[in-house]
Amino acid sequence: MLSNNERTPQVIRNAMLKLNLDGDPDAYTLAQVLPDREMVLPANANVYYAVNTAYNLNFILRPRKSQQAEPVANGKPKNKRN
């Protein structure tokens, strides 16, 4: 169930509880599965209004991709202006 005032972080927390997942809800993303792609819901969206109801309400909860690692040389980040 989803109420009309739940934001993405709360929906992720509820899904994690249902799935018995531990961890930080901020480390996950929520996406609706559409026929030709996935629509990742923005971090502070009102999920009730953000979903596309023209399609099945199938969702994926997955760990957020980590930030791109900076190139490292000798233990220090490389200067990109070289």
According to DSSP, the number of beta strands is 5
- Which strand order does the major sheet show? 2-1-3
Stretches with pLDDT under 50, minimum 5 residues: none
Helix content: 10-25%
**Class from secondary-structure proportions:** alpha+beta
User: What form results from the Cα inertia axes?
Assistant: globular
Per DSSP, the total helix count is 2
Organism: Papilio xuthus
Protein name: Ral guanine nucleotide dissociation stimulator-like 1
Pfam families: RA (PF00788)
Domain Ras-associating: 1-66
Can you walk me through this structure?
- By secondary structure, the protein is of the alpha+beta class.
- It has 2 helices and 5 strands; from the N terminus they run H-E-E-H-E-E-E.
- Strands 2-1-3 form a 3-stranded antiparallel sheet, with helices on one face. The chain has a two-stranded antiparallel ribbon with strand order 4-5.
- Strand 1 (28-33) and strand 2 form a beta hairpin.
- The radius of gyration is 17 Å and the shape is globular.
- The termini are far apart.
- The model has no long low-confidence stretch (mean pLDDT 84).
Topology:
Layout: H1 8-18, E1 28-33, E2 38-40, H2 47-50, E3 59-63, E4 72-73, E5 76-77
Antiparallel strand pairs: 1-2, 1-3, 4-5
